[in-house]
C-alpha cells in the first residue's frame, strides 16, 4: 500500500527519527520490555499520586492541581523524550518557584505553565540549551540546599497542626516558634510517626542486598516484596495514615487535620485563561505577565536545568545518550499541552526518575502507565483523598527534600576551590529571603568571577637577558590593559632595561580586535623607549589575525629559542630592532601551527 510505504520511509528518515525519538525504540519493542515497563510505571504511579497532592500544598494551590500536573508530561515525554528513565511532573523545587510567582492563584499558575512551555519550545528550536551552562554548580547546590530547608520548614506547620502561618521563611520561623504551644497532639504524633516510617523504609531499601538469579525462588520473591514495599513507601504511609484518619472519623472524633474534599473528575481540556476576574475588575494579560515578572525567566530555566541534569546523570549511569535540545522540545510541548489540562509548570523529578530506573524500565513507555494511573485516581479515587491527613503529606515532602541538602559541598569547595564558596553562600543565604533573588545574585557573582578571570589572566614573567612574558590563556579585550601594564612595568623598571621582550603565545588560541589595537599601542610605546617586542609560538588563527592587522614593527618566530636568539642579537647590537612594517622573521604558512 502506498500509505504504508510512505510511513515506512518517514520512519527511516533521520530527521523524523530525531524529532520523534519514539520511532527509534518502538519498532524493536518486545513483550519482555512491556512487562518491565508496566512494573516500573505502576511503582512510579504509586509514588507520584501522594507526592502530587503534597507538592500542590508547596505551590500554594488546591490539591487536585498536583494531580492535574502529573499525567500530561508522562504522555508527551513517551513520544518526544530521549531518556528512558526520566519522568516529568511536579517537583518540590518547581512547586516552590511556582508559589513565589503565582500568588496562590491557579489561573496565574496555568498561564505560567503555558508561557514557560512556549519559552522552552523556542529555546529548543533555536538550540539555546547552551544557556544552561552559565548556571554554575555552586549556584545550583546553593539553591537546592536552601530549597530543602525552606520546603521542609514550610511543612513543619502541618506536622504540628498549626494554622495561619505565613509563607515568608523568616516570618514562618518566628510564628512557628511563637505558637509552638498550639501544637495539635494528633497531627504531631502521626506526622513524626510517618517521618520515622519513611526514614526506616528508605534505610531498609539502601541496605537491601540484591537477589541473584541463582538464589532460591523464595529468596527472590522475598526480595521483590521488600523492595516494592520500600520503593512504594510514600503510597503505603499515606494509605496507612488515611486508614487511621478514617477510623477516627467512624468513631466520631477527629484529632487530625485532613486534606478535605478534592474535586472528582478529569480536568477540562481548554486553553489557559489569559485574564483573571477580580473584585475590582478584570486583570488583563499584560498585567498578569508583569505580575509574574522574572518568574517567566526563572521557571523555564530551572525546569530545563532540572530535566537536562537528571537526564544526563541517568544516561551516563545506564550507558545511553540524550539530545539536550530534544529534551527542551519535550519539556516545551509537555508544559504547553499541560496548560490545557490546568497543570502548573512541571520538570524532571530526580526521586521518581531514580525509582523508574531502579524498577528496570526499558523505554519511556513506562510513563504511559504512570499517567494512566493518575487519570484513574482523578476519575474514581478522589473521594478517598478526603481522609489523607496533612501531617502525612508533610512527612512525604520532608522525606523527599531533606536528601537534597548537600552539607558536604561546603567542605568540598573549601578543599578544592574556596573562591567558589562565594556564589554558593550568596545563593544559599539570599534564597531564604526570596528564591529569585538568591538565584540571580548567585549567577551574577559567578559571572563576575568568570569575567575577573578573563580580565586578569595568569601571566608568567621571567627576567633574564630578555624579558619573557607568557600569558596562561587566551586574550580578550578586558585583559589587554593588564598585559600592557605588566610588560611595561617589568620592562621599564630596571635601571638598565633589556632591549627585547618576548611574548610567548603558546597558550593563546584566540584574540579579538581590541587586543590587536592594544598590542599595536604596546609596540609603539615600547619602541618609544628603545625596546622591541617579539612574538613567538603563535597559533595559526592568532597569527592570521595579527598578519591581517599589518601591525607596525610586528616580529614573530615559530619557536621560543629562535625568538630568544633574535632578542639577544638585538640586545648585543645596542639598539632596538628597526621599527618597520615588514616582518623580521619568516612567515609561517597557513595551517602550520594547529
Walk me through this protein's architecture.
With 594 residues, this protein is mainly alpha-helical. It has three domains: 48-404, no CATH class; 409-455; 459-572, STAS domain (Transcription Regulator spoIIAA). The protein is 60% helix and 5% strand. It contains 27 helices and nine strands. The chain has helices spanning 2-12, 14-19, 22-25, 31-59, 64-68, 72-80, 92-101, 106-125, 137-154, 156-160, 169-178, 185-206, 217-231, 233-250, 285-292, 295-317, 324-339, 350-358, 366-381, 390-401, 408-416, 421-430, 435-455, 480-493, 513-528, 540-549, 560-572; strands spanning 88-89, 276-278, 281-283, 347-348, 459-462, 467-471, 500-504, 532-536, 555-557. Strands 5-6-7-8-9 form a five-stranded mixed beta sheet, with helices on both faces. Helix 4 (31-59) packs across helix 14 (233-250) and helix 12 runs parallel beside helix 20 (390-401). The longest helix has 29 residues, at 31-59. It is elongated. Residues 1-11 and 574-594 have low confidence and may be disordered.
Helix content: 55-70%
Taking strands numbered 1, 2, ... along the chain, how are they ordered across the largest sheet? 5-6-7-8-9
Radius of gyration: 31 Å
* Biggest beta sheet summary: 5 strands, mixed
Q: What overall geometry do the principal axes of the alpha carbons give?
A: elongated
> What is the averaged pLDDT score?
85
Whole-number tally of structural domains: 3
Question: What percent strand?
Answer: 5-15%
Secondary structure class reads mainly alpha
- Number of distinct helices: 27
Low-confidence stretches: 1-11, 574-594
SS elements, strand count: 9
Distance between the termini: 55 Å
